[in-house]
Amino acid sequence: MKSPIKILVILFVISITSNLYAQQFPSGYDIFEKAKNAVAIVNVYDENRNLLRIGAGYTYTADGQIVTSHSLVNGGTYVKIKVNDTEFAPSALYKIDRRRDLIVYKVDGNNLPFLPVGNSDNVKIGDRIFTIGNPKGFERSFSEGMISGKRDFGAGKVFFQFTGMSSPGMIGSPLLNEYVEVVGLISSRSYMNESINFATQINSLKPILESTEVKNYSVPNFFVYEKPPTNFNIGLSYESMGNHSTAIWYYLKSLKDEVKSDTFRRLAYCHEQLGNIKFAEDYYRKARELDSVN
Description:
Layout: H1 4-24, H2 28-35, E1 39-45, E2 51-59, E3 65-68, H3 70-73, E4 78-83, E5 86-88, E6 92-97, E7 102-106, E8 128-133, E9 141-152, E10 158-162, E11 174-176, E12 182-186, E13 197-201, H4 202-209, H5 231-240, H6 244-257, H7 261-273, H8 277-293
Antiparallel strand pairs: 1-2, 1-4, 2-3, 3-7, 4-5, 6-7, 8-9, 8-11, 9-10, 10-13, 11-12, 12-13
């Protein structure tokens, strides 16, 4: 029979070990509480303000840079972003990289809660990861999983494969490590097959995120109801998101409202991006002719 002293020593060691384990491996609740206010709810609407889809994003800087997935907003006209229970319409589109499925908006906020960026090179297969998103519109749903693979699809597209919640409402959600650092951005690629989840590794996005070069494109404001958006502005929105074919359609519609050289220049640029060089040359010529008249 063990002596009372030995039993006390064993209990003490177990207690110390448990405390060390708890400190080393934070609970999911702790991670959720630290991250929840910096995870954004991103709603995407068409030109008539009909809801197209719901996803997520996160606050990258305290002054209001919001990171999300380009595929989430592609094809939409308006974007509404909710951070820490405050709704914003983006004041500008800051950065965009369609190839890496990344878009960064700017909202007019100050001292917003934000998430630090981690080092995705340090993430190993089997590591715990966490996500917060809006599946089926259920806001701030928390999920825990683990890294199940690393995939390189070429052209700078480097992904984590992971287990956890799978739903279109998770597109744009940050993938978090145990230090509540962003190590990935959940991609639309996950939902080609809803049993497999992918997130773009954050290190492949850092060159864009850390770049001082910004686009600073204007975007239609969801909350401005007094004056409906013009066809020209809707075209600009689609063009800024890389949807040049749809942009062309709206620019052509806008010519029925008002004929101006800027519209011809935008048409020329979009056709140029699509490889329609003859159309581009014709529209550039029309823009020059109109400028010379005015």
